[in-house]
Give the backbone structure.
Amino acid sequence: MQLCNKNLNQLPASVRRPLYDRSQVVPAIVHLGVGAFHRAHQAVMTDAVLASGDLGWGIVGAGLMTSGTKDALAPQDGLYTLVERAAGSEQLQVIGAIVEVLGGAADLSLVLARMCAPSTRIVSLTVTEKGYYLDPASGQLQLQAPAIQADLAKPDAPKTILGLIVQALKHRKANGISPFTVLSCDNLPSNGKTARAAVLAFARELDSELAAWIEARVRFPCSMVDRITPATTDADRAYVDAQLGMTDAWPIVTEQFVQWVIEDDFTMGRPDWTLGGAVFSSEIEAWENMKLRCLNGAHSTLAYLGQLTGRETVAEAMELPLITDLLDTLWAEVLEVLHAPAGVNPQDYVEQLKLRFCNPALKHRTAQIAMDGSQKLPQRLLATLRERLAAGLPSPALATAIAGWMHFAVKTAHTPGAVLNDPLSSDILAQARASQDSTAIIDNLLGIDKIFGSDLKTDAGFKAQLLDGFRRLAAHPQVAAAPHIAP
Ligand code: CS2
Protein backbone atom coordinates (compact mmCIF):
# COMPACT_ATOMS: atom_id res chain seq x y z
CA MET A 1 0.00 0.00 0.00
CA GLN A 2 1.31 3.44 -0.91
CA LEU A 3 0.71 6.85 0.59
CA CYS A 4 -1.78 8.67 -1.68
CA ASN A 5 -5.14 10.44 -1.46
CA LYS A 6 -7.25 7.30 -1.42
CA ASN A 7 -5.19 5.69 1.35
CA LEU A 8 -5.14 8.68 3.71
CA ASN A 9 -7.89 7.19 5.87
CA GLN A 10 -5.82 4.01 6.36
CA LEU A 11 -3.11 5.87 8.27
CA PRO A 12 -2.71 5.15 11.98
CA ALA A 13 -4.49 7.69 14.20
CA SER A 14 -1.19 9.00 15.58
CA VAL A 15 -0.18 10.37 12.16
CA ARG A 16 -1.57 13.84 11.43
CA ARG A 17 -2.88 14.32 7.91
CA PRO A 18 -4.72 16.90 5.76
CA LEU A 19 -8.31 17.17 6.97
CA TYR A 20 -9.23 19.69 4.27
CA ASP A 21 -10.63 18.66 0.88
CA ARG A 22 -7.54 18.47 -1.32
CA SER A 23 -9.66 18.36 -4.48
CA GLN A 24 -10.81 21.94 -3.70
CA VAL A 25 -7.30 23.39 -3.27
CA VAL A 26 -6.48 26.02 -5.91
CA PRO A 27 -2.83 26.16 -6.96
CA ALA A 28 -1.50 29.72 -6.61
CA ILE A 29 2.19 29.20 -5.77
CA VAL A 30 4.77 27.77 -8.14
CA HIS A 31 7.78 26.67 -6.14
CA LEU A 32 11.08 26.17 -7.98
CA GLY A 33 13.36 23.72 -6.15
CA VAL A 34 10.99 21.32 -4.40
CA GLY A 35 13.70 19.65 -2.31
CA ALA A 36 13.81 18.57 1.31
CA PHE A 37 14.12 22.09 2.70
CA HIS A 38 11.02 23.44 0.98
CA ARG A 39 9.04 20.40 2.06
CA ALA A 40 10.12 20.88 5.69
CA HIS A 41 9.45 24.61 5.70
CA GLN A 42 7.25 26.63 3.33
CA ALA A 43 5.08 23.67 2.34
CA VAL A 44 4.40 22.92 6.02
CA MET A 45 3.43 26.52 6.79
CA THR A 46 1.23 26.53 3.68
CA ASP A 47 -0.39 23.30 4.83
CA ALA A 48 -1.40 25.14 8.02
CA VAL A 49 -3.04 27.84 5.89
CA LEU A 50 -5.01 25.22 3.93
CA ALA A 51 -5.96 23.49 7.19
CA SER A 52 -7.45 26.79 8.41
CA GLY A 53 -9.94 26.64 5.53
CA ASP A 54 -8.24 29.02 3.08
CA LEU A 55 -7.86 26.64 0.14
CA GLY A 56 -6.58 29.25 -2.30
CA TRP A 57 -2.87 28.60 -1.86
CA GLY A 58 -1.91 25.20 -3.25
CA ILE A 59 1.67 24.66 -4.36
CA VAL A 60 2.94 23.42 -7.72
CA GLY A 61 6.37 22.06 -6.84
CA ALA A 62 8.98 21.91 -9.57
CA GLY A 63 12.41 20.30 -9.59
CA LEU A 64 14.45 21.97 -12.32
CA MET A 65 17.46 19.69 -12.55
CA THR A 66 16.02 16.21 -12.06
CA SER A 67 12.71 14.43 -11.94
CA GLY A 68 13.60 12.68 -8.65
CA THR A 69 10.99 14.42 -6.49
CA LYS A 70 8.32 14.08 -9.17
CA ASP A 71 9.05 10.37 -9.61
CA ALA A 72 8.64 9.89 -5.86
CA LEU A 73 5.71 12.21 -5.14
CA ALA A 74 3.53 12.25 -8.27
CA PRO A 75 2.30 8.67 -7.67
CA GLN A 76 1.54 9.80 -4.09
CA ASP A 77 -0.63 12.76 -5.26
CA GLY A 78 2.08 15.07 -3.89
CA LEU A 79 1.68 13.73 -0.35
CA TYR A 80 4.70 13.01 1.86
CA THR A 81 5.43 12.50 5.54
CA LEU A 82 7.16 15.10 7.68
CA VAL A 83 8.94 13.71 10.73
CA GLU A 84 9.78 16.36 13.33
CA ARG A 85 12.36 14.88 15.62
CA ALA A 86 14.06 15.73 18.91
CA ALA A 87 15.72 13.41 21.40
CA GLY A 88 12.95 11.24 22.79
CA SER A 89 10.03 12.85 20.97
CA GLU A 90 8.74 12.94 17.44
CA GLN A 91 5.65 13.82 15.46
CA LEU A 92 4.63 12.45 12.06
CA GLN A 93 2.46 14.53 9.78
CA VAL A 94 1.40 13.97 6.19
CA ILE A 95 1.60 17.25 4.29
CA GLY A 96 -0.92 17.97 1.54
CA ALA A 97 0.06 21.46 0.33
CA ILE A 98 1.83 20.30 -2.83
CA VAL A 99 -0.93 19.59 -5.31
CA GLU A 100 1.17 19.06 -8.42
CA VAL A 101 4.77 17.96 -8.84
CA LEU A 102 6.78 18.65 -11.98
CA GLY A 103 10.39 17.78 -12.58
CA GLY A 104 13.27 17.44 -14.97
CA ALA A 105 13.99 18.86 -18.40
CA ALA A 106 10.91 17.28 -19.98
CA ASP A 107 8.60 19.29 -17.71
CA LEU A 108 10.21 22.72 -18.12
CA SER A 109 7.61 23.92 -20.60
CA LEU A 110 4.86 22.90 -18.17
CA VAL A 111 6.62 24.74 -15.35
CA LEU A 112 6.71 27.83 -17.54
CA ALA A 113 3.01 27.42 -18.38
CA ARG A 114 2.14 27.24 -14.67
CA MET A 115 4.17 30.41 -14.04
CA CYS A 116 2.29 32.18 -16.84
CA ALA A 117 -1.14 31.16 -15.52
CA PRO A 118 -3.16 34.15 -14.19
CA SER A 119 -3.99 32.07 -11.10
CA THR A 120 -0.30 31.94 -10.09
CA ARG A 121 0.30 34.67 -7.55
CA ILE A 122 3.69 33.75 -6.09
CA VAL A 123 6.80 32.10 -7.53
CA SER A 124 8.98 30.99 -4.64
CA LEU A 125 12.51 29.65 -4.77
CA THR A 126 14.83 27.30 -2.93
CA VAL A 127 17.48 26.70 -5.55
CA THR A 128 20.57 27.12 -3.29
CA GLU A 129 23.12 29.86 -3.67
CA LYS A 130 24.46 28.67 -7.02
CA GLY A 131 21.01 28.64 -8.64
CA TYR A 132 21.15 32.45 -8.93
CA TYR A 133 24.26 32.44 -11.17
CA LEU A 134 25.90 35.28 -9.30
CA ASP A 135 29.58 35.62 -8.54
CA PRO A 136 29.83 34.92 -4.81
CA ALA A 137 32.14 37.84 -3.99
CA SER A 138 30.84 40.57 -6.31
CA GLY A 139 27.20 39.55 -6.71
CA GLN A 140 27.47 40.13 -10.48
CA LEU A 141 25.45 37.93 -12.84
CA GLN A 142 27.66 35.25 -14.41
CA LEU A 143 26.83 36.19 -17.98
CA GLN A 144 29.37 33.74 -19.36
CA ALA A 145 27.95 30.71 -17.50
CA PRO A 146 26.88 28.17 -20.15
CA ALA A 147 23.36 27.83 -18.69
CA ILE A 148 22.84 31.60 -18.77
CA GLN A 149 24.24 31.83 -22.30
CA ALA A 150 21.87 29.06 -23.37
CA ASP A 151 18.84 30.81 -21.84
CA LEU A 152 19.81 34.13 -23.44
CA ALA A 153 20.16 32.41 -26.81
CA LYS A 154 16.79 30.64 -26.48
CA PRO A 155 14.63 32.68 -24.12
CA ASP A 156 11.44 30.81 -25.14
CA ALA A 157 12.78 27.52 -23.77
CA PRO A 158 14.40 28.55 -20.49
CA LYS A 159 16.13 26.14 -18.13
CA THR A 160 17.43 28.41 -15.34
CA ILE A 161 15.29 30.16 -12.74
CA LEU A 162 16.28 33.50 -14.25
CA GLY A 163 15.23 32.45 -17.73
CA LEU A 164 11.95 31.00 -16.46
CA ILE A 165 11.03 34.03 -14.35
CA VAL A 166 11.82 36.56 -17.08
CA GLN A 167 10.02 34.58 -19.79
CA ALA A 168 6.94 34.12 -17.60
CA LEU A 169 6.89 37.81 -16.70
CA LYS A 170 7.24 38.71 -20.39
CA HIS A 171 4.15 36.62 -21.12
CA ARG A 172 2.23 38.20 -18.25
CA LYS A 173 3.17 41.71 -19.33
CA ALA A 174 2.16 41.01 -22.96
CA ASN A 175 -1.18 39.56 -21.87
CA GLY A 176 -2.09 42.14 -19.25
CA ILE A 177 -1.75 39.65 -16.37
CA SER A 178 -0.54 41.01 -13.04
CA PRO A 179 3.03 40.08 -12.22
CA PHE A 180 3.52 37.43 -9.55
CA THR A 181 5.69 38.00 -6.51
CA VAL A 182 9.14 36.37 -6.56
CA LEU A 183 9.84 35.03 -3.08
CA SER A 184 13.39 33.83 -2.48
CA CYS A 185 13.75 31.33 0.36
CA ASP A 186 17.47 30.75 -0.02
CA ASN A 187 20.26 31.43 2.46
CA LEU A 188 21.52 34.62 0.88
CA PRO A 189 21.88 38.05 2.46
CA SER A 190 18.90 40.22 1.43
CA ASN A 191 17.78 37.28 -0.68
CA GLY A 192 14.90 39.18 -2.29
CA LYS A 193 17.19 42.02 -3.36
CA THR A 194 19.69 39.46 -4.61
CA ALA A 195 17.02 37.65 -6.64
CA ARG A 196 15.81 40.98 -8.01
CA ALA A 197 19.31 42.02 -9.08
CA ALA A 198 19.86 38.68 -10.81
CA VAL A 199 16.48 38.77 -12.62
CA LEU A 200 16.96 42.39 -13.72
CA ALA A 201 20.52 41.80 -14.93
CA PHE A 202 19.30 38.85 -16.98
CA ALA A 203 16.24 40.72 -18.32
CA ARG A 204 18.35 43.72 -19.39
CA GLU A 205 20.37 41.46 -21.66
CA LEU A 206 17.18 40.54 -23.50
CA ASP A 207 14.78 43.46 -23.44
CA SER A 208 15.34 46.76 -21.66
CA GLU A 209 11.66 47.68 -21.73
CA LEU A 210 10.69 44.42 -20.06
CA ALA A 211 13.46 44.95 -17.51
CA ALA A 212 12.07 48.41 -16.69
CA TRP A 213 8.57 46.93 -16.26
CA ILE A 214 9.92 44.23 -13.93
CA GLU A 215 11.80 46.87 -11.97
CA ALA A 216 8.65 48.93 -11.53
CA ARG A 217 6.01 46.23 -11.09
CA VAL A 218 7.44 43.02 -9.62
CA ARG A 219 7.99 42.58 -5.90
CA PHE A 220 10.85 40.51 -4.48
CA PRO A 221 10.32 40.35 -0.69
CA CYS A 222 13.28 39.27 1.42
CA SER A 223 12.86 36.39 3.84
CA MET A 224 14.87 34.59 6.48
CA VAL A 225 14.30 30.85 6.41
CA ASP A 226 15.43 28.38 9.02
CA ARG A 227 14.97 24.70 9.64
CA ILE A 228 17.75 22.13 9.82
CA THR A 229 16.78 19.45 7.31
CA PRO A 230 19.22 16.62 6.59
CA ALA A 231 18.99 14.64 3.36
CA THR A 232 16.59 11.68 3.73
CA THR A 233 18.29 8.29 4.15
CA ASP A 234 17.08 4.78 3.31
CA ALA A 235 16.86 4.13 7.04
CA ASP A 236 14.47 7.12 7.35
CA ARG A 237 12.33 5.68 4.56
CA ALA A 238 12.18 2.25 6.15
CA TYR A 239 11.32 3.77 9.53
CA VAL A 240 8.52 5.93 8.13
CA ASP A 241 7.07 3.06 6.10
CA ALA A 242 6.88 0.98 9.27
CA GLN A 243 5.16 3.80 11.17
CA LEU A 244 2.64 4.50 8.40
CA GLY A 245 1.91 0.90 7.52
CA MET A 246 2.33 1.96 3.90
CA THR A 247 5.21 3.16 1.73
CA ASP A 248 6.26 6.76 1.34
CA ALA A 249 8.91 7.11 -1.39
CA TRP A 250 10.33 10.35 -0.01
CA PRO A 251 9.58 11.37 3.57
CA ILE A 252 11.39 14.32 5.18
CA VAL A 253 13.05 14.22 8.60
CA THR A 254 13.66 17.54 10.31
CA GLU A 255 14.00 19.23 13.69
CA GLN A 256 11.10 20.64 15.71
CA PHE A 257 12.42 24.21 15.46
CA VAL A 258 11.20 26.26 12.51
CA GLN A 259 11.47 29.95 11.71
CA TRP A 260 10.42 32.09 8.76
CA VAL A 261 10.56 35.87 8.82
CA ILE A 262 9.17 37.52 5.69
CA GLU A 263 8.98 41.05 4.34
CA ASP A 264 5.31 41.77 3.68
CA ASP A 265 5.53 43.02 0.09
CA PHE A 266 3.45 40.94 -2.35
CA THR A 267 1.88 41.95 -5.67
CA MET A 268 -1.09 39.57 -5.71
CA GLY A 269 -1.68 38.84 -2.03
CA ARG A 270 -0.16 36.08 0.07
CA PRO A 271 -1.28 33.33 2.40
CA ASP A 272 -1.52 34.07 6.09
CA TRP A 273 1.63 32.09 6.83
CA THR A 274 1.48 33.30 10.45
CA LEU A 275 -0.96 30.39 10.85
CA GLY A 276 2.07 28.10 10.41
CA GLY A 277 4.31 30.19 12.69
CA ALA A 278 5.83 32.65 10.19
CA VAL A 279 6.40 36.26 11.14
CA PHE A 280 6.07 39.29 8.87
CA SER A 281 8.69 41.93 9.58
CA SER A 282 10.46 44.88 8.02
CA GLU A 283 13.75 43.93 9.66
CA ILE A 284 14.72 41.04 7.42
CA GLU A 285 18.32 42.10 6.91
CA ALA A 286 19.01 41.92 10.62
CA TRP A 287 17.27 38.54 10.91
CA GLU A 288 19.07 37.20 7.87
CA ASN A 289 22.48 38.40 8.99
CA MET A 290 22.04 36.91 12.45
CA LYS A 291 21.02 33.58 10.99
CA LEU A 292 23.62 33.46 8.21
CA ARG A 293 26.48 34.48 10.46
CA CYS A 294 25.57 32.62 13.67
CA LEU A 295 23.92 29.46 12.34
CA ASN A 296 25.27 28.97 8.84
CA GLY A 297 28.72 30.41 9.63
CA ALA A 298 29.08 27.96 12.51
CA HIS A 299 27.62 25.16 10.38
CA SER A 300 30.23 25.64 7.64
CA THR A 301 33.00 25.89 10.22
CA LEU A 302 32.04 22.67 11.94
CA ALA A 303 31.40 20.94 8.62
CA TYR A 304 35.00 21.47 7.41
CA LEU A 305 36.50 20.72 10.81
CA GLY A 306 34.17 17.73 11.13
CA GLN A 307 35.34 16.42 7.77
CA LEU A 308 38.97 16.82 8.84
CA THR A 309 38.42 15.06 12.17
CA GLY A 310 36.32 12.17 10.89
CA ARG A 311 33.05 13.44 12.40
CA GLU A 312 30.26 12.31 10.14
CA THR A 313 27.41 14.29 11.66
CA VAL A 314 26.93 17.72 13.21
CA ALA A 315 25.99 16.20 16.57
CA GLU A 316 29.22 14.14 16.55
CA ALA A 317 31.25 17.22 15.64
CA MET A 318 29.69 19.01 18.64
CA GLU A 319 31.35 16.46 20.94
CA LEU A 320 34.86 17.57 20.03
CA PRO A 321 36.36 20.39 22.18
CA LEU A 322 38.56 21.46 19.24
CA ILE A 323 35.34 22.33 17.41
CA THR A 324 33.16 23.63 20.24
CA ASP A 325 35.95 25.87 21.57
CA LEU A 326 36.47 27.30 18.10
CA LEU A 327 32.72 27.90 17.69
CA ASP A 328 32.52 29.71 21.03
CA THR A 329 35.24 32.12 19.93
CA LEU A 330 33.71 32.43 16.49
CA TRP A 331 30.29 33.35 17.91
CA ALA A 332 31.93 35.94 20.16
CA GLU A 333 33.60 37.47 17.09
CA VAL A 334 30.30 37.46 15.19
CA LEU A 335 28.24 38.96 18.01
CA GLU A 336 30.72 41.74 18.65
CA VAL A 337 29.86 43.38 15.30
CA LEU A 338 26.30 42.06 14.76
CA HIS A 339 23.20 44.28 14.60
CA ALA A 340 20.55 41.92 15.96
CA PRO A 341 16.82 42.43 15.24
CA ALA A 342 15.01 44.55 17.80
CA GLY A 343 14.03 42.60 20.89
CA VAL A 344 16.28 39.63 20.14
CA ASN A 345 19.11 38.69 22.46
CA PRO A 346 21.73 37.21 20.11
CA GLN A 347 23.46 35.37 22.96
CA ASP A 348 20.20 33.48 23.64
CA TYR A 349 19.99 32.76 19.93
CA VAL A 350 23.48 31.22 20.03
CA GLU A 351 22.64 29.12 23.11
CA GLN A 352 19.60 27.78 21.26
CA LEU A 353 21.79 26.97 18.25
CA LYS A 354 24.09 24.86 20.40
CA LEU A 355 21.12 22.76 21.48
CA ARG A 356 19.90 22.44 17.90
CA PHE A 357 23.33 21.37 16.66
CA CYS A 358 23.57 18.76 19.43
CA ASN A 359 20.19 17.19 18.53
CA PRO A 360 21.19 13.50 18.46
CA ALA A 361 17.99 12.52 16.68
CA LEU A 362 19.09 14.29 13.47
CA LYS A 363 21.80 12.69 11.38
CA HIS A 364 22.87 15.87 9.65
CA ARG A 365 25.98 14.98 7.68
CA THR A 366 28.94 17.34 7.75
CA ALA A 367 29.60 16.35 4.11
CA GLN A 368 26.21 17.79 3.12
CA ILE A 369 26.97 21.18 4.67
CA ALA A 370 30.55 21.17 3.32
CA MET A 371 29.25 21.32 -0.27
CA ASP A 372 29.44 24.54 -2.32
CA GLY A 373 31.84 26.32 0.05
CA SER A 374 32.70 28.93 -2.56
CA GLN A 375 29.06 30.03 -2.61
CA LYS A 376 28.66 30.05 1.15
CA LEU A 377 31.84 31.51 2.68
CA PRO A 378 31.26 35.15 1.63
CA GLN A 379 27.96 35.69 3.46
CA ARG A 380 28.56 33.22 6.28
CA LEU A 381 32.11 34.13 7.35
CA LEU A 382 33.70 36.81 5.19
CA ALA A 383 31.03 39.46 5.82
CA THR A 384 31.74 39.42 9.56
CA LEU A 385 35.47 39.27 8.89
CA ARG A 386 35.35 42.41 6.74
CA GLU A 387 33.38 44.31 9.38
CA ARG A 388 35.92 43.31 12.01
CA LEU A 389 38.86 44.28 9.79
CA ALA A 390 37.24 47.66 9.17
CA ALA A 391 36.89 48.11 12.94
CA GLY A 392 40.52 47.10 13.51
CA LEU A 393 39.51 43.94 15.39
CA PRO A 394 41.44 40.64 15.16
CA SER A 395 39.53 37.53 14.01
CA PRO A 396 41.49 34.39 14.93
CA ALA A 397 38.42 32.13 14.97
CA LEU A 398 37.07 33.33 11.63
CA ALA A 399 40.58 32.95 10.18
CA THR A 400 40.77 29.39 11.54
CA ALA A 401 37.35 28.58 10.07
CA ILE A 402 38.57 29.74 6.64
CA ALA A 403 41.79 27.77 7.18
CA GLY A 404 39.56 24.74 7.84
CA TRP A 405 37.93 25.19 4.43
CA MET A 406 41.41 25.48 2.89
CA HIS A 407 42.61 22.26 4.53
CA PHE A 408 39.45 20.54 3.35
CA ALA A 409 40.18 21.70 -0.22
CA VAL A 410 43.85 20.63 -0.02
CA LYS A 411 42.96 17.26 1.43
CA THR A 412 40.33 16.65 -1.23
CA ALA A 413 42.82 17.70 -3.92
CA HIS A 414 45.33 15.11 -2.70
CA THR A 415 42.93 12.24 -2.03
CA PRO A 416 42.67 9.95 -5.05
CA GLY A 417 39.10 9.67 -6.26
CA ALA A 418 37.79 12.41 -3.93
CA VAL A 419 35.36 14.92 -5.45
CA LEU A 420 34.97 18.54 -4.37
CA ASN A 421 31.27 19.38 -4.65
CA ASP A 422 31.48 23.02 -5.63
CA PRO A 423 30.72 24.98 -8.80
CA LEU A 424 34.25 26.44 -8.59
CA SER A 425 35.88 23.07 -7.91
CA SER A 426 38.33 23.20 -10.80
CA ASP A 427 39.72 26.62 -9.72
CA ILE A 428 39.85 25.56 -6.09
CA LEU A 429 41.50 22.20 -6.71
CA ALA A 430 44.06 23.72 -9.08
CA GLN A 431 45.09 26.24 -6.41
CA ALA A 432 45.00 23.66 -3.64
CA ARG A 433 47.37 21.41 -5.61
CA ALA A 434 49.77 24.09 -6.76
CA SER A 435 52.05 24.02 -3.70
CA GLN A 436 52.73 22.10 -0.51
CA ASP A 437 54.02 25.12 1.38
CA SER A 438 51.52 26.57 3.86
CA THR A 439 52.13 30.23 2.98
CA ALA A 440 51.85 29.51 -0.73
CA ILE A 441 48.69 27.42 -0.30
CA ILE A 442 47.02 30.27 1.55
CA ASP A 443 48.14 32.82 -1.03
CA ASN A 444 46.93 30.65 -3.88
CA LEU A 445 43.49 29.97 -2.43
CA LEU A 446 43.03 33.51 -1.17
CA GLY A 447 43.82 34.64 -4.71
CA ILE A 448 40.51 33.24 -6.00
CA ASP A 449 38.81 36.63 -6.32
CA LYS A 450 35.39 35.13 -7.09
CA ILE A 451 35.31 33.94 -3.47
CA PHE A 452 37.56 36.31 -1.55
CA GLY A 453 37.35 39.51 -3.61
CA SER A 454 40.57 41.44 -4.05
CA ASP A 455 40.81 42.99 -0.58
CA LEU A 456 41.57 40.12 1.79
CA LYS A 457 44.71 38.92 0.03
CA THR A 458 46.34 42.29 0.58
CA ASP A 459 45.56 42.46 4.30
CA ALA A 460 48.79 41.43 6.02
CA GLY A 461 47.23 41.24 9.49
CA PHE A 462 44.46 38.90 8.34
CA LYS A 463 46.91 36.75 6.37
CA ALA A 464 49.06 36.29 9.44
CA GLN A 465 46.00 35.09 11.41
CA LEU A 466 45.01 32.79 8.57
CA LEU A 467 48.49 31.26 8.37
CA ASP A 468 48.54 30.79 12.12
CA GLY A 469 45.14 29.05 12.02
CA PHE A 470 46.21 26.92 9.07
CA ARG A 471 49.41 25.79 10.81
CA ARG A 472 47.67 25.07 14.10
CA LEU A 473 45.11 22.88 12.37
CA ALA A 474 47.84 21.05 10.42
CA ALA A 475 49.68 20.32 13.67
CA HIS A 476 46.61 19.31 15.69
CA PRO A 477 46.69 15.60 16.56
CA GLN A 478 42.98 15.14 15.81
CA VAL A 479 43.07 16.85 12.42
CA ALA A 480 43.80 14.59 9.47
CA ALA A 481 45.10 17.22 7.05
CA ALA A 482 46.84 16.29 3.82
CA PRO A 483 50.07 14.60 5.06
CA HIS A 484 52.63 16.45 2.99
CA ILE A 485 51.85 20.07 3.89
CA ALA A 486 55.07 21.80 4.86
CA PRO A 487 54.77 24.48 7.56
C1 CS2 B 1 23.34 24.33 6.08
C2 CS2 B 1 21.92 24.84 5.90
O1 CS2 B 1 23.74 22.89 4.24
C3 CS2 B 1 24.02 23.97 4.78
O2 CS2 B 1 24.86 24.73 4.28
O3 CS2 B 1 24.10 25.29 6.76
O4 CS2 B 1 21.21 24.12 4.98
C4 CS2 B 1 21.17 24.90 7.24
O5 CS2 B 1 20.91 23.60 7.73
C5 CS2 B 1 19.87 25.66 7.12
O6 CS2 B 1 20.14 26.93 6.62
C6 CS2 B 1 19.15 25.74 8.46
O7 CS2 B 1 18.09 26.61 8.37
About this structure: The mean pLDDT is 97. The chain has two domains: 5-280, 284-475. The longest strand covers residues 80-86. The pocket of D-mannonic acid is lined by residues 187, 226-228, 296, 299, 368-369, 376 (CB under 6 Å).
